[in-house]
Amino acid sequence: MTVYIETDRLNLRDWKEEDLLPFQQMNANPQVRRYFPDLLSYRKSEVDMKVMDEIIREHQMGLFAIELKETKEWLGFIGLNFVPAESKYPFKELPCYEIGWRLIPEVWGNGLATEGAEAVLTYAQEKGVQEVYAFTAEENSSSRKVMEKIGMKHYDDFEYPNLSKYHPLKRHVRYYKNLAF
Ligand SMILES: CC(C)(COP(=O)(O)OP(=O)(O)OC[C@H]1O[C@@H](n2cnc3c(N)ncnc32)[C@H](O)[C@@H]1OP(=O)(O)O)[C@@H](O)C(=O)NCCC(=O)NCCS
């Protein structure tokens, strides 16, 4: 196991086999997926975890598993996702890096996402990443709050691809931070 980033309370590390079940449960939880169009099947989560781990091992960057330093309890993930030019998103600024987070509900509201995300931005800056975006559903206030607390600015709004124009999650917001300064 490799810890890539350490904060006061968190280790951001590569993924372990024991993370799989709590990751699957988190992704199948309607409370966690409230601002996503769907729940994830256990099979999809298994594939996603493998891919995230491979990317971290290859690039020392990606969506890191996070654990509480004190107890080593797995809490979710925080990190940077590389969005390729051929992605589904309707942006002209592609490829790009997207910062993202997803934590188990038991720990929400304690500043952990903000703490981990700030550390990811510092780590990314040290690695030469110059620009970072974040996307979420317009109504996802807690995620938008994290974006604002780490110094990101509301950049624009967009319609989430492959959803009906009447879907309640159609409206999305994009935030931006320049790390070059
Ligand atoms: C978004 C998420 C990662 C935040 O994690 P967290 O550890 O609770 O975040 P933090 O405690 O660092 O900050 C959350 C902030 O949002 C605020 N908040 C929470 N619910 C809110 C709401 N309904 N309206 C407005 N603000 C809200 C909190 O008060 C806190 O701000 P504060 O520190 O100024 O009080 C977590 O809620 C989550 O995993 N959600 C499900 C997955 C998800 O939506 N991911 C993002 C997709 S882009």
TrEMBL record:
InterPro entries in alphabetical order: Acyl_CoA_acyltransferase (IPR016181), GNAT_dom (IPR000182), N-acetyltransferase (IPR051531)
Pfam families: Acetyltransf_3
Domain of life, source organism: Bacteria
Domain N-acetyltransferase: 10-180
Coiled-coil boundaries: none
Protein name, as recorded: GNAT family N-acetyltransferase
Species classification: Bacteria, Bacillati, Bacillota, Bacilli, Bacillales
